[in-house]
Amino acid sequence: MKLLGIFIICAITPLVAGFYENFRKVDQGEPASLDYFFVHYNSPYTRRLLTYAALLTVATSLLFPFDEFFELPILSTLFNIFISLILTFVIPIIIFEKSVI
User: Fold this and answer.
1) Which one of 2, 4, 83, 95 is most buried, by most CB atoms within 10 A?
2) What CA–CA distances, in Å, run from 100 to 13, 22, 32, 60?
3) Which residue stretches of the chain have pLDDT < 70?
4) In this structure, how many other beta carbons lie within 10 angstroms of the beta carbon of residue 43?
């Protein structure tokens, strides 16, 4: 089941990066395009995006055994929210790190 979660997150993460890319292009005055949504499935950043997605999924699933052992589902939920808030800007940092503002 965890492998399925890792696969799904790894499949979605480049699409999310494509959304950021599309927003950036629109912000620069270029027209929006569906091509931008899929540009990061085969880009120099794909490996880093997939590594981030896999590590995020593994990190959030590591708390699952503790959740069952201590019977504190709120702890798992709070941990997931905390990790998500901290890592919110990782995808834009990965794809825009070499961009000039």
Assistant:
1) 95
2) 23, 17, 20, 33
3) 1, 63-64, 66-68, 70, 100-101
4) 16
